[in-house]
Specification:
Blueprint (H helix, E strand, L loop, with lengths): L12 H16 L6 E5 L1 H11 L5 E6 L12 H17 L5 E4 L2 H11 L4 E2 L21 E6 L8 H8 L6 E6 L5 H10 L6 E5 L6 H5 L4 E4 L8 H8 L4 E4 L5 H4 L6 E4 L2 H12 L9 H9 L3 H15 L1
Parallel strand pairs: 1-2, 2-3, 3-4, 5-6, 5-8, 6-7, 8-9, 9-10
């Protein structure tokens, strides 16, 4: 199988679609069977507008929860996201197939727009389970989180709640992003320089060392399609405490066997109180953990997409 990569240089998605259409038309002349796959609101909508009349099948892949379009950070955000809802209503049904990365997201789209979304989990699990060594009793609980430091990750609220527990915790934040300076200022304001460490970007081959330190993995996103780092945490036998981010986290932590999902700051504080009082402890059954995580494996992902392409061709 040969793979050709085309680089489209454009600052605007709409302008990029003009070039993508030219490339697609050229490719259609040389191939008998053709499938065009797109993902994320903007490109999905524009793909339908620009390419729907070409002689090919179209698959739209949505990786973010529909609830993202109901969370507004300013007035412009409100206008933009409500306009996107209208465009989704008039475009997504024109695709041959619609795919999302969690049943939670698929069900929302199917219910709101009367679509037939199917679910294919991303290849988040590499098939390896890393056992944690037994630790001696510690005074502090070590939390970790890995994410882009952006507003929707809601790290500022997480830090404020953890500040209520004073010197009983240590939080390591791995990642970079536009909110970093704001978060550093908040750490200083709350006098948490000794409790919170910003480790910046960490290469994938070194991330295992960091997971070994974590007692709990935290995910505080306002919305998130499928938090791959939560799967990675579980593969290192680290339990997860996560916000209700309206996506794959509901399947990753299904049944509270591997962690907790909180709906608001009050519930998070309640869970943390139980953690600090040692009332919450997790001992994973390794065979159950492997079976659970294996549904998020590369093998399963490839099998599902192979079946999809056979059906669509």
């Amino acid at each position: 199988m040969g793979i050709k990569v085309f680089e489209v240089k454009s600052k605007r998605t709409a302008m990029a679609m003009i070039e993508i259409k030219k490339i697609t038309v050229r490719l259609l002349k040389n191939n008998y069977k053709n499938i065009f796959a797109s993902n994320i609101y903007y490109s999905n909508i524009l793909s339908v507008f620009f390419l729907r009349n070409l002689n090919m099948k179209m698959i739209l892949i949505e990786r973010t929860p529909h609830q993202e379009l109901s969370i507004y950070y300013n007035f412009f955000d409100f206008v933009k996201k409500n306009f996107l809802k209208i465009l989704i209503k008039f475009t997504f049904h024109k695709a041959n197939e619609c795919i999302s990365n969690s049943h939670y997201i698929s069900n929302e789209y199917n219910k709101i727009y009367n679509l037939n979304f199917k679910t294919i989990y991303p290849p988040s699990f590499d098939g390896k389970i890393f056992r944690k060594s037994l630790k001696s009793s510690k005074d502090k609980i070590y939390f970790g989180t890995i994410c882009r430091l952006s507003r929707e990750k809601n790290l500022s609220s997480l830090i404020k709640i953890l500040s209520n527990f004073k010197n009983n915790f240590f939080l390591e934040i791995i990642g970079e992003g536009p909110e970093k300076e704001k978060l550093l200022s908040l750490r200083k304001k709350l006098h948490l320089e000794k409790q919170i460490k910003f480790s910046g970007k960490v290469s994938p081959d070194k991330i295992k060392t960091h997971f070994k330190k974590f007692d709990f993995y935290l995910n505080s996103s306002d919305f998130e399609g499928f938090p791959n780092t939560a799967v990675e945490a579980l593969s290192h036998n680290v339990p997860v405490i996560a916000s209700q981010s309206h996506g794959g986290i509901n399947e990753i932590l299904k049944g509270k066997k591997f962690g907790y999902i909180y709906r608001d700051q009050y519930e998070l504080q309640k869970i943390l109180k139980q953690v600090f009082s040692k009332k919450i402890k997790f001992t994973f059954n390794q065979s159950q953990l492997f079976k659970h995580l294996n549904q998020f494996s590369e093998t399963n992902n490839l099998k599902m997409y192979n079946n999809l392409f056979k059906k669509v061709k």
